[in-house]
Specification:
Elements: H1 6-36, H2 44-48, H3 61-67, H4 70-78, H5 84-92
Helix pairs in contact: 1-5
Length: 98
């Protein structure tokens, strides 16, 4: 049975921590959007397909535009989504921009 090197394990642990931090950031965004839109987040087409509001925060921009209400689109225009990749880059280079 092979064991993971300490350096690889440290990197894996850091990625896990970053994913959790990003998940908390997404949850804060979701909560703020829900409050700002008074819960009007998923459009009629999305509701008909069973899309849940949090899905708008976990899928790609095309999905978001297809199923978000006008209120949600307006909110997102003022609060851009921070992908995990951009979040990770910033965390490893804090002087960089999102």
């Amino acid at each position: 049975m092979a064991t993971t090197s300490p350096h690889i394990q440290q990197a894996l642990d850091r990625i896990k921590e970053l994913r959790e931090e990003h998940r908390r950031l997404v949850q804060r965004d979701f909560d703020a959007a829900e409050e700002a839109t008074l819960g009007a987040m998923v459009n009629e087409r999305g509701r008909a397909k069973g899309i849940q509001p949090f899905d708008l925060f976990t899928h790609n921009p095309t999905f978001f535009r297809a199923y978000a209400t006008r209120e949600m689109l307006d909110w997102r225009a003022l609060h851009p989504h921070l992908s995990f990749a951009a979040f990770e880059r910033h965390m490893f280079d804090p002087n960089g921009e999102f």
